[in-house]
Amino acid sequence: MLPRMPPPLADSPLEVDGVRTLLAPTTGPMHAGLVFRVGLVDEPLARRGITHLVEHLVAHGPGRAGAHRNGRTGVEHTYFHVQGTESEVAEFLTGIGERLRNLPLGRIAEERDALRAEAAGRPAADPLPMWRHGARDYGLPSYPELGLDQLGADQLNAWVARYFTRENAVLWVAGEAIPAGLRLDLPGGERRPAPVASVALPNTPASFAGGSGDLAWDTVVRREPRAAVLANVLERRMTRDLRDTGAQRIRTRYEPRADGTARIVATLEPGPDRTLTGLVGLLSAVGAGQIDQDDVTAVAELTCDGLRAADERGARLPGQAFNLLAGHPVQSLDEALAGVRALTRDDVAEVAGTAYRAGLLMTPAGTDADLPGYTPATATSAEMVTGRTHRGRNNRGLRLVAGPDGVSVLDGDTVTTVRYDACAALLTWPDGGRQLIGQDALVVRAEPTLYRGADGLPAEIDARVPAESRVDLAAREPETVPQPPAPTRWFRRG
Hints:
Layout: E1 15-16, E2 19-24, E3 31-36, H1 50-59, E4 68-73, E5 78-83, H2 86-101, H3 108-121, H4 128-133, H5 153-163, E6 169-174, E7 206-209, E8 215-222, H6 225-241, E9 248-256, E10 261-269, H7 275-287, H8 293-313, H9 317-326, H10 333-341, H11 345-357, E11 360-363, E12 375-376, E13 388-392, E14 395-402, E15 406-411, E16 414-419, E17 423-428, E18 434-438, E19 443-446, H12 457-464, E20 470-472
Parallel strand pairs: 2-6, 7-11, 7-12, 17-20
Antiparallel strand pairs: 1-2, 3-5, 3-6, 4-5, 8-10, 8-11, 9-10, 13-14, 14-15, 15-16, 17-18, 18-19
Helix pairs in contact: 1-2, 1-3, 1-5, 6-7, 6-8, 6-11, 7-11, 8-10
């Protein structure tokens, strides 16, 4: 019988065509996956969607109808999964390598349409990553796939050559042996670590009012068993303590990251009364260490049961593949169970304090985000650039300043600035409209129709933003082009 898990990367000789490989028996049908350390965090905002497009081009090749096959692009990883007979598994994964070597570029237009259809069917993006990290790396999940129309053969092939290589991949197989005939003819390259997470929040705990009626909270803590247990303890506590407020769909998630941190997310639909107040009080109490021993014991037992069941199905293998790609050790089942069993209430209470201090709270639209204990997350800039000032048409409180360093808009007392050297993307429309998105996620809308003497503004901005940061969009309907307010008419008496 094969061991449940091979030893860590440094000591493991198991490879397939130079690709590090994990193998473990399973109680069900054979299934396997090929994982690459590339995801949304690696994409520039202006080319958002490039990894997903590669995944679609590669995953949707010919194959047998009986096998379950799919691909997925995540925050840090892209993977291809197949379940079926030994020959079906070998055929699908061998085909992945072949199509990465020779991308089916004739399918670009078709797969773009498929990605747009997927996006139309998804719920609204989670805004918390953008507020925490900005318009880069771990903030990218908050943004749509802006770059799809900009992507051609050269960019796609270069992306594959950089990230979809044998050094940046791990194969896992839940079965008794590596499938006969499996070949992974991947290009050579380098291991690509995940980027360091950017920080857009100067202070935490912080809060902001979202664009929907939902409540959400997230935090970033050290990746460890007690943080995973905390996520589930928090869900139990929310379900119990917020029941009387009418809150629904209470969920928490624990999302480990390659850099040794983890994100904990809590979401819920608030009830008609007191849910926000109740959640704020609950988070404060948990952060102060008010953790029940019974909750910790129950969650730890459920976690151990889940680990054992996952191990029998081979379901721990994808996570172990992610660990190898990040350079973390591969844990045996016994080691994982021991880490959970050793936890105490005080361990969970300690990480709860850290989690609370790093928290970011999204309140429902229209609510006051200025809450006790929370700093309002800023959506303004501290300074304006210097340059030529364009005054608003029929709006004395509106000004736009365009200079060699960037663009600022002053609307009443609110200042928003995007510097050219920190511009994540420039959105352009044929009518001259321009929108600059800063790396801090702040947005400057430079609409020539709204300002006096601004006819040359689009060309000025275009000349200062690198071409790779530009996203050219389709023409807008005339009625959607922003227009200045109607002029105020003054009447004389008599």
